[in-house]
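User: quick one, fold this
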Amino acid sequence: MSLEGLYSALSGLRNDSLWLDVIGNNISNVSTVGYKSSRAEFLNSFGQTLSAGSADNPAEGLGGTNPAQVGLGSGLAQIDTLFSQGNIQTTGQNLDVAIQGNGFLEAKQGSQTYLTRAGDLSLDSNGNLVDDKGGLIQGFNASIQYTKEIINSFSSVPGQPAVVTHANLTLNNQNPANVSNININPSMTIPPKATTQVNFAGNLDSFQQANQPGGILDLNPGGNPILPLSVGIDLFGFNMNNAKVQLAPLPNGGYALQQVGDLTQNTAADPYGVEYLGIDLNQAQASAGTYAWEQQPPVEPATQASETTYDSLGNPHEITVLFYQVNDLGAAGINNNTAAGQSQVCYAWYAFDTTGGKAPASSNLLGGTGISEGAFTPPLVNTSYDRGLNGLYIGDFIYFNTDGSLANTGGVSGIKPALLPQPDMPRIYIPATNALGVVSPRPVQGAEIMAVNLNFGTAGVLGQGKRDGLFSDAEGSYQVVNGVNTYVPQFTAHAVSQDGYADGTLQSLSVDRTGTLQGAFSNGQTLALAQLSMARVNNPEGLESVGNGYYQASASSGTMEQTVAGKEGLGTIQGGALENSNVDLTVELSNMIIAQRGYEANAREVAVINSTLGTLATLGEMSAA
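Assistant:
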């Protein structure tokens, strides 16, 4: 009898013992955060060939024979790490993170960067984001980026144009070279951000017209204009040919704005359309007391919208926009609209600085789209804020398609000559003038001039117009007022949001699904302060475990690639949660029984072979005697 059976049994004992070691390690880590279970895999060991076997021999009528081989037991193939998803458990700790899907966090200790799935994170005394082993978590930090914009080509000081500085907290997460230790000062304060845009939404009722005789807004009662308008042969004598709107006389005196063409279609003969309108801000301010908002009693606007904005020092400024429906929609008593275009709702808008409760007045009328700070008469210099040709600027109307959708943005749109490049979104400026008494703006009281875009929505043609901002629908109703059936308009136009804020201190942190650390500040802002870097390798099972829940790349795993959650096949992040161990106790206990029985069987085989060898030795002694 040979010793092959003994060797086979011994290899079985060794492998079953190793399997029990793996099972025991899995069970001991059943509560370890982010732990990934291991699995032992075995293979049979090639042994001895007793006969090689033979092929069929039809000539002699013989079939083939199989080879006769005796194995020498089993051996270890490999011990795999199983990166299946562990259960996600909510913890309520804001900085805890769980990875749902593929990928690893990066933790740095000394010069070595490790990969981990354990997301129990916190800030140390220096503001570094660390794991429970003190590893420095890697990612992208936000930083303040400053850009400057020239807003006036005709400066008060020659060679020193007025500028606006934009400060933005920017997360530079596109270049892996920017990955570093995530550091957040728990008592950090963000600087103020000057408002650059106010967004509007809601309905400017299509039926409303000011409370004037016949329901038409009289633009020139008693020979004194109530609104600063320049259109066609206008109230100020500014002559425009081919205008799509004109002043039409009212039966009892005065004028209304009459549409005589399709407002939405500019042509080569009329490239400016209704947008080629301007207001001389100096003249408007010199006419204090004559306009609608200053008359007694004042001519009420159709509606108004206010929003608090912020300058570069974080000082609040309230902007109030008044809306006046200025066109005649074909009411009886004056010329109806021509066949050149259907009736379209048209509003004029005016922006005021009403900070501190100031009422709208010509003195605080803001320079901006449709309002030229300076004079139209030659020489046209120092007239406005970088308006293009000689500083002249145009457009102060908002008008709509016949389906109620927005037809223009309140600024300039349509065909424009190359010499008059204009923004499609209107912009206003605070302050309108400065303490030096010149028309071109310079910083006042330590803060830069504010340049604020008014986003009234996206313009579109009939049938394709959008309603992502202002629209004009007949949403009101007829009601009996003082015994008269009266149309009562419905207005929902309002300022939705603005992007400026005062300074603020950090109040709390949270982590979103992209691994971005969002900071909530005392000024009501929530800003991205950092983002976790996520790593991937082609073969996660090839990673080498170095303990403490850490892994490092090996030749088998492939090199580590850095990106962020949700990209390039990586999973997402769940904040305020942890990934539990993926050990399945039912499987491990079942495997333990199998390993135990295998061990016992192999031990029994050793005992049997030992007994057999003892018998053989006894026979040998007897033969020798």
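User: anything notable?
Assistant: The mean pLDDT is 79.
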